[in-house]
Design brief:
This protein is of the alpha/beta class and 974 residues long.
C-alpha cells in the first residue's frame, strides 16, 4: 500500500514539473548548483562519505540511532556553513571570537547559507515566553499601545483625556456662577512630613494649601504627621465661574495643570464636591491618572510595565509553614524547624526555650502537640506585651518570628544566604497581578473587552478565533490604526497552527517546553521570515507530535521547500520518510558499525534497497506484540479529581504490574496528569520533595509501591565533564580497579588520581575537560581540544598505569560494546555496562561528552542507570517519550528492556506518541479528544485492541490502522 502511495506521489510530482511555469528568479541558484556535494566526510564515525544532496527539496536523513546522521547533517554540513559565515567577518571581528575548526571533510560544494533548528530548548530564562520568541507579543504590545481604551482600576469607568480648552468649557458649563477653588495636586496618598514641600510652595508665591480636604494657610515650619497618608493640593486660585472671567479661569487652569503635572482639581466651595481634570488619561471620579500608553507599558521585561510585586515573573517566592516545618512530629530540638536544624547552644534556641517555658512547653515537645496560637507566635513573632515588667519571670522580649526573619534574608547581598533561603521557598502565583506579569494600570487597557494578559493566557487556537472578525467589534478609528498589525499577528498565529502548536499559549514559559515544541516554534518563526535560498537543517521536528499533527508538520516543511529553500531533516518517522523528495539511509549499524550510506534516492528506491530501515518500512521486520496481555498484580493506583491546567476533574486508574501507556494528541493533558500531578504526589510521599502537585482530590494505592523513578529527557549534564560513565556510576568502579593495579600501588595512586574532576592526575591546562571552551559572544560557545593533553584529559604519569594494555583515557574512548568484552571478568563493572548495551547504546563511548548526546540518548543513559540498580519488583517507573531519537530497530530493543522490567513485577508508565511502543502496552489511557481547552478528559482506556475500537479521540483511528498490519508473537509460536 505504501509503495503505491509513493509511486502515485512521484507521478503527481513529475506531472507538476512538466506542467510547471519557468522557475522564479529566486530559484536561479538551484539551477546553477543543483546539488550540495560532500566529498570525503570523516567527522566522528563517518567513513569517508561522499554524497550528492539535491537542493530545493525535502531531504530526510534516516538510519539506526548513532549511525552518523547528525555527524553528516550538523557536524559536517552545518559546521562548514557556520565556518564560512564567520569567514565573512573582518579580521578584527574574528579576533574576538577565536577560530572555528574546519570539519573533517575534503570538500563541500553548492552550500547555501545554513540555518540549524535543533532540539535544544532555546532559553532557560524565566522571562522568555512563547509570545516573546515568536514576536507575536511584541506586535500585541504595539496594538494595545496604539488602539486600546483605558479603564479605571478603581471604578471600572472609562478613562478620559481633555485639552485645556475642553477643561475650561466644561467648568463654565457645569459649574456656572459657582464659587470655585482651583487646586493643583502635588501629593496623592503618600506618607511624610513634607516640611520642605510647604517651604517650596511658599517660595513660589502661594499662600494656601488643601491638606486632606482641609484648606490651610501656609505657616513657617509647617509640617504634617509623617506616619499618616496625606493628599496635598496647592490652592492656585479662588474665583467665580462666569464667562466674563474666562481669561482668569484659563490662566488658573494652565497654572494648576503645570504644578499638578498634567492633573488639576476643582472644588465647589458651597457643596464641597470635587472633580478631577487631566491632560492625560484620567478617571474623573477618583482622579486616578495613567501615563500615555507606549509599547513598554505592556512589557513585563520593562519597569514601565512589569508588576512591582513579582517584577514581571508572574510568581513570587514564598516561605510557607509547610517548608519551614516539613515534619510536625519532630520537636524543635530534633530539627522540627528545618532552617534552624537540630539543637545547638545558640541565642535563637535559648529565646525559643524562654517563649515555650512561658506556655508550659519545652524544646523537646513535638510541634504537633504545641497549641496553634503558640506556633503562630514562633513563626510570625511576638511584640513586647504592654505593662510587662522585665524583672518578672513572665516577661518575654519582642521576638521577630522565624518566617519574617527568613523573608528578610531573601534580599541578602550574600549569594550563599540567598541559596540557603531558596530551600524553604515555594513559587506561588503573584497575588497582585494573578500571574499576568503586568502592573494593574497595564491590565486596564482593553480591546473588545479583553486586556493583553487575558489574550496571552488563551491557547493559540482560541487566540486565532478571537482575532477572527475583530474588525467588526472595534471602532473605525481603531480599525484604521490596527489594519497592518492585525495582518501580521494573524499570519504569525497561522504559522504556529501550521506546525501543530495550537494548544500552547503566548504566556507559556519557554523553560517548560519540550525539545520538539521549541524546535517547532523556531520552525514557525523561520516560516514567518519568508527567507529564500536557505538550507534548513532540522533534528527530528516530529518529537512529541501525535500522528494527527504530523501531517501538518510535513505540510509546513513542504511549504518551506516550495518558497525556494532546501530542507534537510534528520528523522525516524515513517510518514516523514514517505513524504520526502529524497532519502539518505545511513548505517548499517551504530557507532563504529555505521558511517556508510546504505541507500539513497526517492522513498520508492529505499524500499527496494534491503536496508534495515527499508525492512521496517515494508513490514518485512516487525515489532511483535502479545495477544495475551499481563494480568498485573491486581492492585491499582487511583488518582481522583485532577483539575490542573486543562484537566477536567480527571479520575485515572493505573493498574500495577503492567506496561501502561498514556496517549493523546499534543496538549491533551498527558504531562499535566503525569509530570505535574502524579509524579510530584509520589515524589512527596516517598522522598519529601518540595514541588507541589497540581490540584487533585485524593490518591489511593500508594502503599502498594515502594519507590518512584522518573526518566525524562533533560540532559545528563551541561558540560563536557559529564558522560555516560560518570552518570551511571561505573566510572567510580573503573577508577577503583585502576587504583588496585600493582603499578598504581607502587606509585601510591588512589582512585582520585584517575578522576579528571580533581587535581592530581588530570591535565591542569583544561582541568580534565579534554576541551577548551571558546566564548563566541553572539554565537554559541565552541569547544576545541586542549592543546596540552590533545583531549586525553590526564597527565603523562597517570596514563602510564595500564589495565590489559589500556590507559584510563583508552577506557573512556572505548565503546560500550567493546567495554562489555574488555571488562567481562569484572562483575561490578560489567553489570552497569551491560545494561547500557541492552538499551541500544552500544555505539556510545564511555567518556562521550554529555553535550553531544541527543535528548533520546540522555534518556536511555538514565534508563540504563536505573535498570543497573537492583529493583524491588514494586517500583513505579515513569518514562517521557522514551522512543525520542530512536530508529525502529532501537524501539524493538527498548520494548524488550521495558517488558523485562515489567515481567519482574514493576509498573512502567510511558507517555508516548509512537504507535510501535503504544501497541505493545498492556493498558492504554488515552486523553483528549483535542489539545488545550478541547482536551483534559479520558476518552478511552483498556488494552490496545479495546482502545482501537473506540470511536472517540484520534489515537484510536491510528492505532486501529497499526494493529491491522501488526503480527502477534503468540500466534506465530502456535
Amino acid at each position: 500500500m505504501a509503495k503505491k502511495t509513493t509511486a502515485s506521489r512521484s507521478a503527481a510530482t513529475s506531472t507538476a514539473v512538466l506542467a510547471a511555469p519557468p522557475a522564479p528568479p529566486e530559484r536561479a541558484a538551484d539551477v546553477e548548483a543543483p546539488f550540495i556535494e560532500v566529498y570525503g566526510a570523516r567527522e566522528h564515525n563517518l567513513k569517508n562519505v561522499s554524497v550528492k544532496i539535491p537542493r530545493g527539496q525535502l531531504v530526510v536523513f534516516t538510519g539506526i540511532s548513532g549511525s552518523g546522521k547528525s555527524s553528516l547533517a550538523f557536524d559536517t554540513i552545518y559546521a562548514e556553513g557556520q565556518r564560512r559565515y564567520m569567514e565573512t567577518f573582518s579580521a578584527y571581528a574574528r579576533s574576538f571570537m577565536g577560530g572555528l575548526e574546519r570539519p573533517d571533510v575534503d570538500k563541500i560544494e553548492g552550500l547555501s547559507p545554513v540555518i540549524s533548528i535543533e532540539q535544544k530548548t532555546t532559553s532557560r530564562n524565566p522571562r522568555s515566553t512563547v509570545g516573546t520568541i515568536t514576536e507575536i507579543y511584541d506586535f500585541l504590545r504595539l496594538l494595545y499601545a496604539r488602539t486600546a481604551e483605558a479603564f479605571s482600576y478603581a471604578t471600572g469607568a472609562k478613562m478620559i483625556r481633555q485639552s485645556d480648552e475642553q477643561i475650561i468649557n466644561y467648568i463654565l458649563k457645569h459649574f456656572a456662577d459657582k464659587k470655585l477653588v482651583v487646586l493643583a495636586p502635588v501629593v496623592k496618598g503618600r506618607k511624610g512630613h513634607y516640611r520642605e514641600l510647604f517651604q517650596q510652595i511658599a517660595k513660589l508665591g502661594f499662600t494656601k494649601v488643601r491638606v486632606d480636604g482641609e484648606l490651610l494657610d501656609i505657616t513657617a515650619k509647617m509640617q504634617v504627621d509623617r506616619y499618616k497618608i496625606h493628599d496635598i493640593e496647592i490652592v492656585i486660585d479662588r474665583l467665580k465661574a462666569t464667562k466674563e472671567d474666562r481669561f482668569r479661569l484659563s490662566g488658573s487652569v494652565q497654572n494648576s495643570l503645570t504644578h499638578g503635572k498634567g492633573t488639576m482639581l476643582v472644588l465647589d466651595s458651597d457643596s464641597g464636591k470635587t472633580q478631577f481634570f487631566s491632560r492625560f488619561l484620567m478617571d474623573p471620579t477618583t482622579g486616578i491618572a495613567y501615563d500615555d500608553p507606549a509599547p513598554n507599558t505592556f512589557s513585563f521585561n520593562s519597569p514601565y510595565g512589569a508588576c512591582p510585586t513579582c517584577n514581571g515573573l508572574g510568581e513570587v517566592q514564598e516561605i510557607t509553614e509547610e517548608s519551614v516545618m516539613p515534619d510536625k512530629k519532630l520537636s524543635i530540638s530534633r530539627g522540627g524547624i528545618a532552617p534552624l536544624g537540630e539543637y545547638r547552644d545558640i541565642w535563637i534556641f535559648q529565646q525559643l526555650s524562654t517563649i515555650l517555658k512561658r506556655h508550659k512547653a519545652s524544646l523537646s515537645t513535638a510541634l504537633d502537640k504545641l497549641p496553634a496560637e503558640l506556633l503562630e507566635k514562633l513563626l510570625y513573632g511576638i511584640e513586647e506585651e504592654e505593662g510587662a515588667d522585665p524583672k518578672k519571670a513572665g516577661y518575654v522580649e519582642p521576638f521577630e518570628g522565624i518566617i519574617p526573619f527568613l523573608r528578610r534574608q531573601m534580599d541578602s547581598d550574600s549569594e550563599s544566604i540567598r541559596s540557603w533561603i531558596q530551600e524553604y521557598t515555594q513559587a506561588k502565583e503573584c497575588p497582585e497581578c494573578h500571574g499576568y506579569r503586568l502592573k494593574k494600570e497595564s491590565l486596564h487597557f482593553k480591546i473588545a473587552d479583553k486586556n493583553i494578559g487575558e489574550l496571552s493566557v488563551m491557547d493559540i487556537a482560541q487566540l486565532a478565533q478571537w482575532f477572527e472578525g475583530l474588525e467588526s467589534r472595534i471602532t473605525d478609528r481603531q480599525n484604521l490604526i490596527a489594519r497592518e498589525l492585525l495582518k501580521e499577528i494573524r499570519k504569525r498565529i497561522g504559522f504556529l497552527l501550521e506546525v501543530g502548536l495550537e494548544y500552547l499559549s503566548l504566556h507559556r514559559s519557554v523553560r517548560t517546553l519540550s525539545g520538539g515544541e521549541s524546535q517547532r516554534i523556531r520552525l514557525a518563526t523561520q516560516i514567518g521570515t519568508q527567507l529564500v535560498g536557505v538550507l534548513y537543517i532540522m533534528d527530528e521536528p516530529s518529537i512529541g507530535l501525535h500522528q494527527r499533527d504530523n501531517e501538518r508538520l510535513i505540510k509546513a516543511l513542504q511549504h518551506l521547500r516550495d518558497i525556494g529553500n532546501s530542507v534537510i531533516v534528520v528523522e525516524h518517522d515513517k510518514d516523514m520518510i514517505m513524504n520526502a523528495d529524497y532519502v539518505l539511509d545511513i548505517g548499517p549499524g551504530a557507532g563504529i558499525h555505521g558511517g556508510h550510506i546504505v541507500a539513497e534516492g526517492s522513498p520508492r528506491d529505499i524500499f527496494q534497497s534491503g536496508s534495515l530501515t527499508s525492512q521496517y518500512l515494508s513490514g518485512e521486520k516487525h515489532i511483535e506484540l502479545r495477544r495475551q496481555k499481563r494480568k498485573g498484580d491486581g492492585g491499582q493506583l487511583v488518582l481522583k479529581g485532577a483539575t490542573g491546567h486543562n484537566l477536567k476533574n480527571v479520575t485515572a486508574k493505573f493498574p500495577l504490574g503492567k506496561l501502561v501507556a498514556v496517549t493523546g494528541v499534543s496538549g491533551s493533558g498527558k504531562s499535566s496528569l503525569i509530570h505535574d500531578t502524579l509524579y510530584p504526589i509520589l515524589n512527596q510521599f516517598f522522598f519529601n520533595s518540595k514541588k507541589d502537585p497540581l490540584p487533585y482530590q485524593s490518591i489511593e494505592g500508594l502503599e502498594l509501591i515502594d519507590k518512584v523513578i522518573e526518566v525524562d529527557q533533560s540532559p545528563i549534564g551541561r558540560t563536557p565533564r559529564s558522560n555516560p560513565a560518570t552518570y551511571t556510576g561505573v566510572f567510580t568502579e573503573i577508577r577503583s580497579l585502576f587504583a588496585s593495579l600493582p603499578e598504581a600501588k607502587i606509585r601510591g595512586y588512589g582512585p582520585g588520581r584517575f578522576s579528571f574532576n580533581v587535581k592530581g592526575g588530570r591535565c591542569e591546562t583544561c582541568e580534565g575537560a579534554g576541551m577548551r571552551t571558546i566564548e563566541m559572544n553572539f554565537l554559541p560557545d565552541v569547544h576545541v581540544p586542549c592543546e596540552t593533553c590533545k583531549g586525553r584529559r590526564y597527565n603523562r604519569e597517570t596514563l602510564e598505569v595500564r589495565f590489559k594494555g589500556k590507559s584510563i583515557t583508552d577506557v573512556l574512548d572505548m565503546t560500550v560494546e567493546k567495554a562489555v568484552e574488555y571488562f567481562e571478568n569484572q562483575p561490578r563493572i560489567i553489570r552497569k555496562i551491560q545494561v547500557l548495551n541492552e538499551v541500544g547504546l552500544g555505539y556510545l563511548t564511555l567518556g562521550q561528552q554529555a553535550t553531544t548526546l541527543s535528548g533520546g540518548e540522555a534518556q536511555r543513559v538514565k534508563l540504563a542507570t536505573e535498570l543497573g540498580k537492583k529493583d524491588t519488583g514494586k517500583t513505579f517507573y515513569i518514562l517521557d517519550e522514551p522512543t525520542t531519537g530512536l530508529h525502529f530497530e532501537d524501539i524493538n530493543h527498548l520494548s524488550d528492556v521495558l517488558q523485562k522490567l515489567v515481567d519482574k513485577g514493576n509498573t512502567v508508565l510511558i507517555i508516548e506518541h509512537n504507535l510501535d511502543l503504544i501497541k505493545v502496552a498492556d493498558h492504554i489511557i488515552d486523553l483528549g479528544p483535542e489539545g488545550g481547552g478541547g482536551g483534559g478528559t479520558i476518552v478511552a482506556q483498556g488494552t490496545p485492541e479495546q482502545v482501537a475500537k473506540v470511536k472517540k479521540g484520534h489515537t484510536a483511528r491510528f492505532l486501529a490502522e497499526e494493529l491491522k498490519i501488526s503480527k502477534y508473537a503468540d500466534e506465530k509460536v502456535k
